[in-house]
Amino acid sequence: MPQTSLLRTALVTVPAVLALGLLSGWLANSGYGNPWFDALRKPAIMPPGWVFGVVWTILYILLGVVLALLLQARGTPGTSRLIGLFLVQLVLNYAWSPTFFALHKVSLALAMIAAMIALTVALILLLFRDRRLAALLLMPYLAWLGFATALNFEILMLNPDAEYLVPAPANPDIRA
Questions:
Q1: What distance in Å separates the CA atoms of residue 1 and residue 142, rounded to the nearest whole number?
Q2: CB-CB neighbours of 39 under 10 Å
Q3: 30 with 101: CB under 8 angstroms?
Q4: pLDDT band per the 50, 70, 90 thresholds, residue 35
Q5: How high does pLDDT run on average in the chain?
Q6: HSE, side-chain direction, 13 A CA sphere, residue 53
Q7: DSSP classification of residue 40
Q8: pLDDT for 82-105, tens place per residue?
Q9: How far apart, in Å, are the Cα atoms of 33 and each of 40, 146, 152?
Q10: 120 and 137 in contact (C-beta within 8 Å)?
Q11: Superfamily of domain 3-164
């Protein structure tokens, strides 16, 4: 496969995957600063907010490269199925933030991560023989999904009523 063609494809897929991921998080008001999320009890392993921005930026760039590699292999046997699996897990990824942060469905979000892990493991196994670079680029994503699963699970255990939690309104009193 010509490198210039891969580069051209990646110049489209990387910004697209990254932008859609950032948009998903922004629309869902994800992370610290979300009153509902701020009111939750957090596990001891919860990293500071900036870590999520750095990690997700790197992971979305890697996912964009994986998508470029898959698109470059179009026409070879099985590639359509691989692209389909990749896109299903990516849609689940983009849907996670709205499910967790906007809808407050912590259990459903946990099930979504489990599905993302299953799809990512399947992708890695299917890609490893013929498209090893794409499989290897998915490894950090799989590792982070494992960590995200632990966080999601711990938040669920610490906040069994999280779906119904309504944060206290901000104090409107102005003090001089």
A1: 26
A2: 13
A3: yes
A4: very high
A5: 92
A6: 7
A7: S
A8: 999 999 999 999 999 999 999 999
A9: 12, 24, 18
A10: no
A11: TspO/MBR protein (1.20.1260.100)
